[in-house]
Write a structure and sequence with these properties.
Blueprint: E1 4-5, E2 12-21, H1 27-37, E3 41-46, E4 52-58, H2 60-72, E5 78-85, E6 96-99
């Protein structure tokens, strides 16, 4: 599902909620490293309900690879599910950052 496209249609914005044992296990750093290597812009943060929220923008191929990585996570995580959620705008070129719980821009 692609929720947002740039003017040329080549970049899509997507959002995910990752559930399981995903907090306190290095999951946000794992996501930031994978997304950065894939050339994606966006952010990752812990949610109050114990899940992790991810917002990213980039090529469809890179987004698919990130989604695959989210389903696995780092070795210490136990991912029970990855659900696509409505995405929020992510500006191109802002890099990929770790945000604090409840932070928004």
């Amino acid at each position: 599902m692609e929720n947002e496209r740039s003017g040329d249609g080549s970049k899509a914005g997507r959002g995910w909620r990752v559930e399981g044992r995903v907090q306190g296990v290095g999951f946000r750093w794992f996501v930031q490293e994978k997304a950065t290597r894939l050339g994606l812009a966006g952010w990752v943060r812990n949610e109050a309900d114990g899940s992790v929220r991810v917002e990213a923008r980039g090529s469809p191929e890179a987004m698919a690879r990130l989604e695959e990585a989210l389903a696995v996570g780092p070795p210490s995580a136990e991912v029970r599910g990855v659900k696509e959620v409505p995405s929020r705008p992510v500006e191109e070129g802002e890099g990929f950052e770790i945000r604090h719980q409840g932070a928004s821009r």
